[in-house]
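okkk here we go again. third time trying to get the pyridoxal-5'-phosphate bound version out, last two times i messed up the smiles copy paste (missing a bracket lol). double checked this time i swear
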Amino acid sequence: MHLTHLSCFACDKTYEAANLINLCDCGKPLRVEYDLEAAAKTLQPQTLAGRPSNLWRYREVLPLPADIDPPTLGEGCTPLLPADAVAEQLGLSPGRLFVKDEAVNPTGSFKARGMAVAVAMAAHLGAKKLAVPSAGNAGGALAFYAARCGLEAHIFMPKDVPVANRLECEIAGANVTLVDGLITDCAKIVMDRREAEGWFDMSTLKEPYRVEGKKTMGYELFEDLCGRLPDVILYPTGGGTGLVGMWKAFEEMQAMGWIGAERPRMVSVQASGCAPIARAFAAGATEAGTFENAHTAAAGLRVPRAIADFEMLRILRESGGTAVTVDDVAMMDDARRLSAATGICACPEGGACLTALRKLTASGWIRPEDRIVLFNTGSGMKYAEAFAEFPRR
Ligand SMILES: *Cc1c(COP(=O)(O)O)cnc(C)c1O
Ligand SMILES: [Zn+2]
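finally!!
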C-alpha cells in the first residue's frame, strides 16, 4: 500500500501502477516498487504481533490499497517444521533442518499466495476475465481466487495434467481447456486470444503481482526463525516466482533495516527431464532458453522456458547458491521418505528438494552446521497419477 510504481527487471523503464499491465515494452517482467522508507515506519518485526495470520499481515509491502479488504482464503503463515529425523539420516546437526510446508495453503499449494495478491489487484484494476496457462497448481489457485472475487477464469492445461488439477478448476466454476502440448503451448493460446476475448493474462511473471504474493515466503522465514534468515534455501523451480519473490523480500527487508547484507544461499532444484535453469547455471550462461522434450512427474517443474530466467540465474550466482537436477525415481522415493519422516504430505517437488539436499550434503556443499530450509510447495494428495506411476519400492 506504499506502492509507488513499476520498474523493469531488465531495462531502466518505469511505469505507473494505475493500469492493468503485463510486461515491459522490452518483453521482460515488471517489478513492483514501494516507498520502503514510509513502509518501515509501521512495518517492523515487532509491529507484526497481533496482525492477521495470513499473508496480508505484510500489508505495507503489498500492492492493494489500504482501504480495500483483501479477498483472503487464509493463504500464507504456513508452518516451518523441524525435520530432525531427516537431518539425522543425512548426518546434519539437529535443530537446523526445516521444512516450510506450503501444502496447507488454500488449494493445496503455494500458488495460492501469488494468485491471492494478483487476482485481488486484477479485480481492483478493473479486470473481469482472467486467463492462465497451467501445468499443475496455478490453474486451481486462479480458479478459486477468481471465484472469491466474482471474476471469470479461463484455464489452459496440458491434456496430461494431474486430474486433481483439472477437477479443482472445474469445481470452482472456471472454464478449462485441455491442450495437446506443454505449458508453453498453453501460454501461446492465451497470448493469441487474449485481446479478442478481453482476457487479462495471469501467466507466471507476465503480470507484476504474483511475485508480490510469493515474496511473503521470505518475510515469513524471517519471522519463523525468530528474526534471522536460513543459510541455505532449497527451492523447486518452475517459472521461478518464489525464487524471484523471496530475493525481492530480502532486498526490501534490508532497505527497511530488518536485516543486513547477508543472504541465504539459494538453491534451484529442477527435474533432470526439465532443467533449463540448472543447465544454464552449469554452463555459466545468463539466459536459459528452452529445454526440449520436457518431461517429469513433478507437474510444477514442467516449465521448459522461464521468462525470468536471467533474474533467477543472477540470484543463484549473487547468493553463492547453486542449481541441482533430480531424477523422477529419486524424487518420488524422497517424497515418500519426507512424508514418512516428518508427517507432512510431500509433493514430488518437495521430494525433489530432499534428493537435492542429499546430493549437496554428500558433496560437502552443504555443511552440517548450515541452517537449511527445504520447501514442500504443495500437497502430495494432488499427485495420484505420479505416485501410481512410481509405486513404493
Ligand atoms: C508452480 C510450482 C512450483 C514452481 O514454482 P515457481 O515459483 O513458479 O518456480 C513448484 N512446486 C509446485 C508444487 C508448484 O505448483
Ligand atoms: Zn524493460
